[in-house]
């Protein structure tokens, strides 16, 4: 049993203001004891137990355990082009050292002989980067493209950068990527890393995916909703494209080549996938390149943020060079830990290396996310604080140590009543698959270590894989996409069937938004909505804005609402100052037009100020610049879609707020509530009694009618992002008239 030595000065007591899982409660910062004394921490040890070597046979390739880092840092940030030195034979040598290399010919042969292949290989064996290149180099893809799907954007972009380097080309040439709101592809592109959602979207324009000869579904164990949609569709596409010549019909007329499908993962229920694809061939790739030693704590660590803090400094003070990757459930914990680490790092003695902290979560703009890939300055140790977006597929150069809190956030559908349920993010324990993937991030360039902040017994008790998203999330958006493909959710063959209740809820929502008629058929409005990469309510609002002549305003508002973090910074330390700043933007009608005021002010500042000036302004105004930057990016993409659809995105209602509120209301019609005599609000389309969230500018107001962006579920059901409208606006909406008539 190994025991990590005491970490001086870091208390073992739970964080003074430990945050509880909040599902959207206002951000709560943890005050840091600034006068915290350095003291002997011998009683504060986090004892970790060396449990087992990671499975697999470490290859004695000279990159083993205690060798100093030998390899050059290779990965280029997403979107950058490879350098000419990449022709460097060392990269080709590294490719040959990967465990998968010895099986190269056999893998190509198996894929050639089978329509569907399920390929299982340990993390780091080389599946994601090598298999597409083998297929391309062998000529198996013919003149078609090879798509490799990823559940997350950052994996798709960074893999494209790596494989482009290996192919000695620029990203967007032979090797490209396509993710929501960003693409680097050209007519030369033959290998395309793509998020599963983008490939589902491609189905809308090309239902047989005719440009592709191979589709590789990577990290299939995650069972995202999009991956499941794809898996179901690939089966039907193969029935057309791979049918015998005389039965091919339409596809044969178009002379489409057969489609090869490869399902890949390190941790997959291989038999289940194989069975779904009529007993598809399963191939196992043995071995990993570098060993990862895994430790578990001897006791559970309820305060996982504090445990992560202590473990990090134990590594930092006691262990040799190598960067650290810490997995946390969400942005809130990341920001809290970032502050704590910074505080203690500032107090380190001079002879201890400095700490460079890099946060990594979905809401960060891509430019900030790609910072994790840049080389660590000499004399420093990089500490990456990440959510599970860094869990699969990516290689972060320099990472030798992983700290796994064992927690993640999971989207889950909270069913209240058909048509009024909503997805909420809950913090929960991870699965064994996730734990294996997280540990795998440590053994990419050399041997590594993974410190699990949970016991070995907890690991054994974890479910092997997560419940598929199709069984736990809202289906509205996917159902709309399927309708555009002429498919019915209810009739499609899925690996796991969705709950009937969730299907009914999605049908009802789409009907109330006007996307479906009362025979469940797609309406022209529904088709128009599906063209926008937006949640259906926001797509509906955007379509409404075209008629109401306020597309410019609605685009600005929904771009902020589609960003992955909140616009306003909540701070307990300077609550009054934050409230004062917010008051400057306040619009009487509530939060939506307040958001618009912020965007307009930000645009003015952006036009005259430098990047630093902009940041400064955001800080003074207690605004989240990351949210605004992401929103501007989203808005630019949406404007492009409008231009392609010949929609005038400049159309503005000027100072007339009525049309803007009416357009938003069309999209958020299910999210409306009327004031009751007792001061509470009752949903118009559902049974819930809701309160206005304290973060809203209408929090202390009593308005006859409101609409809101979402419900959050804490001690009460809170409506967040609230505006008030005259009751007559609601009564004017056709679906509401229909309902009252009924
Ligand atoms: N961006 C990169 N920079 C440096 N090395 C890389 C990069 N991407 C991949 N590699 C090297 O290639 C190896 C194989 O990576 P690859 O993603 O193909 O493995 P994998 O089997 O798909 O693993 P996983 O299941 O974790 O995605 C890594 O372990 C690493 O050594």
Describe the structure.
This protein has about 750 residues and is an alpha/beta fold. The chain folds into 4 domains: about 5-35 and about 290-465, P-loop containing nucleotide triphosphate hydrolases (Rossmann fold), CATH 3.40.50.300; about 45-65 and about 70-285, Rossmann fold; about 530-660, no CATH class; about 670-740. It contains 25 helices and 22 strands. Strands 5-4-6-3-7-8-2-9 form an 8-stranded mixed sheet, sandwiched between helices. The protein has a 7-stranded mixed sheet with strand order 1-10-17-14-11-13-12, with helices on both faces. A hairpin with a 5-residue loop joins β18 and β19. Residues about 1-85 and about 415-420 have low confidence and may be disordered. Bound molecules: adenosine-5'-triphosphate. Adenosine-5'-triphosphate (ATP) binds near residues 266 and 392. Its EC number is 3.6.4.13. Belongs to the DEAD box helicase family. DEAH subfamily. It comes from Trametes coccinea (strain BRFM310).
């Amino acid at each position: 049993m190994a025991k990590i030595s005491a970490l001086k000065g870091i208390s073992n007591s739970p964080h003074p203001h430990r945050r509880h899982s909040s599902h959207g409660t206002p951000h709560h910062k943890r005050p840091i004891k600034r006068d915290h004394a350095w003291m002997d921490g011998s009683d504060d040890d986090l004892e970790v137990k060396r449990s087992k070597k990671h499975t697999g046979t470490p290859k004695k390739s000279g990159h083993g355990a205690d060798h100093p880092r030998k390899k050059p840092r290779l990965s280029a940030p997403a979107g950058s082009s490879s350098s000419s030195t990449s022709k460097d034979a060392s990269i080709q040598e590294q490719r040959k050292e990967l465990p998968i290399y010895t099986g190269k010919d056999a893998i190509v042969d198996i894929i050639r002989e089978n329509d569907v292949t399920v390929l299982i290989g340990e993390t780091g064996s080389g599946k994601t980067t090598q298999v597409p290149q083998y297929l391309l180099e062998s000529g198996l893809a013919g003149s078609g493209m090879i798509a490799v799907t990823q559940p997350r954007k950052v994996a798709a972009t960074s893999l494209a950068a790596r494989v482009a380097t290996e192919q000695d080309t620029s990203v967007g040439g032979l090797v490209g990527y396509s993710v929501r709101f960003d693409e680097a592809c050209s007519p030369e592109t033959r290998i395309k890393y793509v998020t599963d959602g983008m490939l589902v979207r491609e189905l809308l324009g090309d239902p047989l995916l005719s440009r592709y000869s191979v589709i590789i579904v990577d990290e299939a164990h995650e069972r995202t909703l999009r991956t499941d949609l794809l898996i179901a569709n690939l089966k039907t596409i193969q029935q057309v494209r791979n049918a015998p010549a005389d039965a091919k019909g339409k596809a044969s007329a178009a002379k489409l080549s057969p489609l090869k499908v490869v399902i890949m993962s390190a941790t997959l229920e291989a038999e289940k996938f194989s069975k779904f694809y009529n007993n598809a061939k399963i191939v196992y790739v043995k071995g990993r390149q570098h060993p990862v030693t895994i430790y578990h704590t001897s006791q559970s660590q309820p305060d996982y943020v504090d445990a992560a803090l202590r473990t990090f400094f134990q590594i930092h003070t006691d262990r040799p060079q190598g960067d650290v990757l810490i997995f946390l459930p969400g942005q809130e914990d990341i920001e809290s830990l970032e502050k704590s680490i910074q505080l203690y790092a500032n107090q380190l003695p001079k002879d201890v290396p400095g700490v460079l902290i890099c946060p990594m979560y979905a809401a960060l703009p891509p430019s900030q996310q790609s910072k994790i890939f840049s080389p660590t300055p000499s004399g420093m140790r990089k500490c990456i604080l990440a959510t599970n977006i860094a869990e699969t597929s990516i290689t972060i150069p320099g990472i030798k140590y992983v700290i796994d809190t064992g927690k993640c956030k999971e989207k889950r559908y909270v069913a209240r009543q058909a048509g009024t349920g909503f997805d909420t993010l809950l913090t929960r324990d991870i699965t064994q698959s996730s734990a294996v993937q997280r540990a795998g991030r440590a053994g990419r360039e050399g041997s590594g270590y993974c410190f699990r902040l949970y016991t070995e017994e907890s690991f054994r008790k974890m479910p092997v894989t997560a419940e598929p998203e199709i069984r736990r999330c809202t289906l509205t958006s996917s159902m709309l996409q399927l309708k555009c493909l002429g498919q019915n959710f209810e009739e499609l063959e899925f690996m796991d069937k969705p709950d009937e209740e969730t299907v009914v809820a999605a049908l009802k929502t789409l009907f109330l938004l006007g996307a479906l008629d009362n025979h469940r058929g797609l309406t022209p409005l529904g088709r128009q909505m599906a063209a926008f990469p937006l949640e259906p309510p926001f797509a509906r609002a955007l379509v409404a804005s075209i008629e109401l002549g306020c597309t410019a305003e609605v685009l600005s508002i929904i771009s902020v609402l589609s960003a992955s973090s909140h616009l306003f910074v909540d701070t307990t330390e300077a609550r009054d100052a934050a409230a004062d700043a917010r008051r400057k933007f306040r619009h009487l009608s509530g939060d939506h037009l307040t958001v618009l005021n912020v965007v307009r002010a930000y645009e003015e500042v952006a036009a005259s100020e430098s990047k630093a000036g902009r940041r400064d302004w955001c800080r003074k105004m207690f605004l989240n610049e990351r949210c605004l930057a992401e929103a501007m990016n989203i808005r630019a993409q949406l404007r492009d879609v409008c231009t392609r659809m010949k929609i005038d995105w400049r159309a503005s209602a000027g100072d007339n707020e009525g049309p803007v509120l009416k357009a938003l209301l069309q999209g958020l019609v299910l999210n409306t509530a009327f004031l009751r005599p007792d001061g509470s609000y009752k949903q118009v389309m559902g049974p819930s009694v809701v309160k206005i969230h304290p973060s809203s500018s209408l929090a202390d107001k009593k308005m006859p009618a409101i609409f809101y962006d979402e419900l959050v579920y804490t001690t009460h059901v809170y409506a967040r992002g609230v505006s008030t409208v005259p009751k007559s606006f609601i009564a004017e909406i056709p679906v509401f008239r229909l309902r009252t008539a009924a």
